[in-house]
């Protein structure tokens, strides 16, 4: 069920404290932690604490929570010092787009030049 923790979800386990992560921010509804395979000097994941499979599901099922994730992504960029130089917020949705953990999450990337198009 949407919003409920999933036993087989890595990010739900991080939220529950069952799997360690390097947390950089936490709010009532979100958690932000460093990516274990960083693609930029700053690479932080911002997740809703409630389980939603991907960004599209999150937006449809809990639009205020989706806004919380985006707001926190901006706060992460500010906190990490990449706001002024520019940063990217990326949601991968579906395996074909590179999503490997099926719990909605935003990648906050910065600290180097980011080319376009990505990938």
From TrEMBL:
Motif Histidine triad motif location, chain numbering: 103-107
Gene3D superfamilies in the record: HIT-like
Query: Where are the catalytic residues?
Result: 105 (tele-amp-histidine intermediate)
What's a Gene Ontology MF term here? catalytic activity
**What Pfam families does UniProt report for this protein, alphabetically?**
HIT
Which top-level group of life is the source organism from? Bacteria
Query: What residue intervals traverse the membrane?
Result: none
Q: Which SUPFAM superfamilies match?
A: HIT-like (SSF54197)
The record ties this protein, via InterPro entries, to: Histidine_triad_HIT (IPR001310), HIT-like (IPR011146), HIT-like_sf (IPR036265)
Q: Which PROSITE patterns does the record cross-reference, listed alphabetically?
A: HIT_2 (PS51084)
Please report the stretch or stretches of sequence annotated as the HIT domain: 10-119
Q: Which PANTHER family match?
A: HISTIDINE TRIAD HIT PROTEIN
Protein's UniProt name = Histidine triad nucleotide-binding protein
Organism annotation: Streptomyces solincola
């Amino acid at each position: 069920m949407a919003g409920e923790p999933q036993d087989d979800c890595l990010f739900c386990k991080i939220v529950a404290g069952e799997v360690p992560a390097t947390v950089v921010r936490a709010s009532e509804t979100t958690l932000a932690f460093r990516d274990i395979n960083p693609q930029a000097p700053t690479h932080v994941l911002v997740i809703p604490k409630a389980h939603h499979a991907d960004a599209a599901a999150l937006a449809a099922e809990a639009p205020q929570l989706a806004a919380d994730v985006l707001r926190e992504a901006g706060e992460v960029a500010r906190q990490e010092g990449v706001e002024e130089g520019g940063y990217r917020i990326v949601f991968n949705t579906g395996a074909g787009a590179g999503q490997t953990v099926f719990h909605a999450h935003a990648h906050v990337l910065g600290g180097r030049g980011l080319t376009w198009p990505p990938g």
